[in-house]
Design a protein that fits this description.
Blueprint (H helix, E strand, L loop, with lengths): L3 E4 L3 E2 L2 E2 L4 H10 L2 H4 L2 E6 L5 E7 L13 E3 L2 E2 L5 H9 L8 H5 L2 E4 L4 E4 L6 H4 L2 H6 L2 H7 L7 E5 L8
Parallel strand pairs: 1-6
Antiparallel strand pairs: 1-2, 2-3, 4-5, 5-10, 6-7, 8-9, 9-10
Amino acid sequence: MEPLEVIPMVGIGPFKLGMSKSEVEEIIECITPEISQLYNQMEYDSEHKLYFIEVTNPHDYPPDESDVVLTYDNIDVFRTKADDLVKLIDSKTPYTRDIDAELGFSFIFKDIQLALWRPSVMTEEMMNSVEFLTEFTPENQELEKRFFYFRTVAVAAPGYFNRT
């Protein structure tokens, strides 16, 4: 399967910002359920044009059997550790330095209208801590490792993330 491309201010995979709701629905009818269910949020502007697209990580919960790949600038968005992905994108365009970014949950790159989010954070330091190794069962340790990666990626039309 060809990777779904994340192109800031353009779209993700077959969905492009500016599409009408009927164009989006036509595409949904033509793609596999495995792909369509990844698109967890789509917003439309006052003219009913696609204004925001958010996709969920297809590898988020074990077992990881999905062969769906989403790429940004030839980088696998959901198989690249969050810290590494942020550094790569930040080297080209800065993210908003706010409390969510400082805590490691959410990163917004306003210049390119790109957002990355995860509900919890995992780092190598946390994973190697005595507390993690002794207080979490091996099964829970495996589940917690998913937080090394982002849960969602989103692209938006120009100005979307400037509203906040």
